[in-house]
Design brief:
Blueprint lengths: L4 E7 L8 E7 L7 E10 L2 H8 L24 E2 L3 E9 L11 E4 L29 E5 L3 E3 L7 H5 L3 H13 L7 E4 L5 H13 L2 E6 L4 H7 L4 E3 L6 H9 L6 E4 L6 H9 L10 E4 L12 H6 L3 E4 L5 H12 L7 E6 L3 H9 L8 E5 L4 H4 L10
Parallel strand pairs: 9-10, 9-12, 10-11, 12-13, 13-14, 15-16
Antiparallel strand pairs: 1-2, 1-4, 3-5, 3-7, 3-16, 5-6, 6-8
Helix pairs in contact: 3-4
């Protein structure tokens, strides 16, 4: 029986983790075309923190969350959590009741229209509508994709959630990355970075990871051709030449930005005679700084194509679901916290040590024994 109320972690305003309150709220009901999902695992994304802190400005000096559609959609109170896995327990009008009991993964986007090839005003569940940091969530039936794979646990599927993997795929497709091309993946140990490494291999491209030395073995096992140490950027281009046989990167998938941007451009343009395509810099993050200082002459004389990427399209979501079902992609699950301890998860993420790789998932307390405890990161549990 579906209860009238549920436990949820509710964001009540912009600020620190004290703005996340664990409380009881009304259980949602599915509207026409929706399914009600009993949540079993939701992957944590850095976008949760950045939205909470108001770090998605579209103007200088702004403290807000992005509003590309012209008005703010992050309205408080809000339940965050985009990469939702769970089981259908009820359906709205127009949805086949045979879906009840189905396990699935949410395509996290709130699409502005029905187009499958473009997404101009991206928004998502956990931002413009309530997400998965709760026991139940109502979502569009068409965007809740069945993942029947018996050898994958719910937490593992959440670790392959669309927020990271669809962003990664959109970075690659926007840059028209082709089979055989050499691709630098920055921020390689995070959710988008590990997704990029895997997706490059699925698409036939050759990924080179920028990370720390202690993560070399894990990233090589995941599919990286080699791992370049980010602690020494002064010799970066020379080390790139040593790893690639003197050839520049065809494209850079950048999640870092800041002062490193110039180095990434250098790594694509040092030998233009060896190139067969234009240099491409695909950007979907700025963990190293939101402002980069570059010479525009370097951009237009070397014809560097700069591509800003946010989320992805319905077509890309469908492709990812196919690859997950066929197990061409594998989860990189770092560990789990229960929902009531989301504050601990936030602190762990912000102060993570050098062994961090992959995704953290958040599991409702009532689902902890089955879906969270095997991957627990909680101390004293």
């Amino acid at each position: 029986m579906i209860p009238n109320t549920m436990k949820a972690m509710v964001l009540v305003g912009h600020g620190g983790i004290d703005k996340l309150e664990y409380t009881s709220v009304s259980t949602p009901s599915p509207s026409p075309g929706e399914v009600l999902v009993q949540v079993t695992a939701t992957a944590k994304n850095n976008t949760d923190r950045k939205a909470r802190e108001g770090l998605y400005p579209t103007k200088k000096g702004e403290t807000t969350s992005f509003q590309m559609g012209g008005k703010p959609t992050l309205i408080f109170p809000r339940i965050q959590g985009a990469d939702i896995v769970g089981h259908v327990v009820a359906v709205g009008e127009g949805v086949d009741r045979s879906r009840i009991g189905e396990r699935g993964l949410l395509d996290f986007n709130i699409y502005a229209d029905s187009r499958r090839d473009i997404n101009l005003t991206p928004d998502y569940y956990g931002h413009g509508a309530d997400g998965g940091y709760a026991e139940y969530v109502a979502v569009p039936s068409a965007q809740f994709h069945c993942i029947p794979n018996e050898n994958l646990g719910d937490a593992q599927i959440a670790a392959m959630g669309m927020c990271s993997y669809q962003t990664a795929l959109h970075m690659l497709t926007s840059a028209h990355v082709a089979s055989g091309e050499r691709v630098l993946v920055t921020g390689a140990s995070g959710g988008v970075g590990t997704a990029l490494i895997q997706l490059c291999r699925v698409m036939g491209a050759i990924p080179y990871a920028l990370s720390t030395v202690n993560k070399t073995a894990a990233l090589l096992e995941l599919g990286a051709e080699s791992v370049l140490d980010r602690s020494d950027m002064d010799s970066f281009v020379e080390r790139v030449k040593a790893q690639t046989g003197g050839k520049p990167f065809d494209a850079v998938m950048d999640l870092v930005g800041g002062t490193m941007t110039d180095c990434f451009i250098d790594a694509m343009i040092f030998n233009m005679n060896a190139r067969g395509t234009y240099p491409r810099l695909s950007i979907a993050g700025a963990s190293g700084g939101n402002i980069s200082e570059i010479l525009w002459t370097r951009i237009y004389l070397y014809q560097v194509q700069i591509l800003g990427v946010s989320h992805g399209t319905r077509e890309e979501a469908g492709q990812l679901v196919e690859w997950i079902r066929s197990e061409q992609l594998k989860p990189v699950l770092h560990g789990a916290f229960r929902l009531s301890r989301l504050h601990d998860a936030e602190r762990y993420f912000m102060n993570r040590d050098s062994n961090y790789l992959g995704k953290i998932v958040i599991v409702p307390d009532c689902q902890w024994e089955a879906h969270g405890k095997p991957w627990s990161l909680e101390s004293g549990v």
